[in-house]
Design brief:
Strand order of the largest sheet: 8-9-7-6-10-11-12-13
Shape: elongated
CATH architecture of the largest domain: 3-Layer(aba) Sandwich
Number of strands: 15
Number of helices: 10
Order of helices and strands: EEHEHEHEHHEHEEEHEHEHEEHEE
Radius of gyration: 21 Å
Number of domains: 2
CATH topology of the largest domain: Rossmann fold
CATH superfamily of the largest domain: NAD(P)-binding Rossmann-like Domain
Strand content: 15-25%
Helix content: 25-40%
């Protein structure tokens, strides 16, 4: 990149502290400005790039009047729904995300959730706490079916892992098709209510967009297979939470493994905390030992591409709200 001065990269960190590892490697070619949300507007004046290390922050919208020189934002997360406000979407600012960092961890989390339900692990824990010995039969997941809602990178890794465990897997995405290398058959998400009754396990890995918000509606939940299991590692707002509570209470849904919720942290008064068959986790399905280091390494690599004028990786289609698969990748 030809410039008379070093370009400025602003890095938004959580107010509680915690900087990305090894980004100082960029200091030979760029000026790094670290800030928290309170100081973001000032820190963005003259900045050409922004790393959202505080990836759930919505501070960019408030600081937007200060972003006249901004050309690139990298979000250290797979989901970008909290960032894409209308002014940014309409601008020329390029947005990239952390696509690829969390795929395997989240797929393993889904597999673990399915195994926990099929093998009655949660009930075994409750019985242990009560010092009660109760032998019973469990299920083989190789005899069961899974519908993965979301055919992006996380959904594909999930499908591959579930298939490797012997499960019959289908996908649900924007367009229906057959012969997909990971899902076999992909159903149209708009037709979920007509097809969701096929699955023993419905797994949500989709990003939150205008099309997926409320996708798992009361009608879809009512059409699920009796005794079925819902896994959500996507976004809480994809599921009608009130309708889910009713479907768990009255059927047909028997179990839910929920890592994301409409409101986070999950409010203490939510019935999901204590409902039979529900497993609650704290938005952690992608968090594995070393994930922060992997995120920082990914950003440094992409920043070097940007500084040298090479194409950026993981460019988000801002109007769709996700990275569109590049040519040569699986569809």
């Amino acid at each position: 990149m030809e410039t008379s001065r070093r370009p400025v990269i602003t890095i938004l960190c959580p107010s509680a502290g915690g900087r990305p590892a090894d980004v100082e490697r960029l200091e030979a070619d760029a000026e790094l400005v670290f800030t928290d949300a309170a100081g973001l507007a000032d820190a963005l004046r003259g900045a050409e790039a922004l790393l959202l290390w505080d990836f759930f922050s919505e501070a960019v919208r408030d600081a937007w009047p200060s972003t006249g020189s901004l050309r690139w934002i990298h979000v250290a997360a797979a989901g970008v729904d909290k960032l894409l406000f209308p002014e940014l979407v309409a601008s020329d600012v390029v947005v990239t995300n952390a696509r690829g960092i969390f795929d395997r961890a989240m797929a393993e989390f889904v597999l673990g959730s399915i195994l926990a339900v099929a093998k009655d692990i949660h009930l075994s824990h409750d019985l242990q706490s009560a010092r009660k010995w109760l032998r019973r039969e469990t299920r083989l997941i190789s005899a069961e079916t899974a519908l993965v809602v979301g055919t992006g990178a996380i959904g594909r890794e999930t499908a591959r892992l579930l298939r490797a465990a012997g499960m019959d897997v289908r996908g649900a995405g924007r367009t229906a098709r057959t012969g997909d290398p990971d899902f076999g058959e992909v159903l149209a998400s708009t037709d979920l209510a007509a097809h969701v009754g096929w699955a023993d396990h419905v797994v949500i890995t989709a990003p939150l967009t205008a099309e997926t918000r409320g996708l798992i509606s009361e009608d879809v939940l009512a059409a699920m297979k009796p005794g079925s299991h819902l896994v959500n590692v996507g976004r809480g707002q994809i599921v009608d939470e009130g309708a889910l509570v009713a479907a768990l209470r009255d059927g047909p849904v028997e179990a839910a493994s929920l890592d994301v919720f409409e409101v986070e942290p999950l409010p203490a008064e939510s019935p999901l905390w204590t409902m039979p068959g529900v497993a609650v986790s704290a938005h952690m399905s992608g968090d594995y030992e070393g994930w922060r280091e992997a995120l920082a390494e990914q950003f440094v690599d992409n920043a070097r591409r940007w500084l040298s004028g090479r194409p950026l990786l993981n460019v988000v289609d801002k109007r769709r709200g996700f990275v569109v698969a590049e040519r040569g990748e699986r569809p």
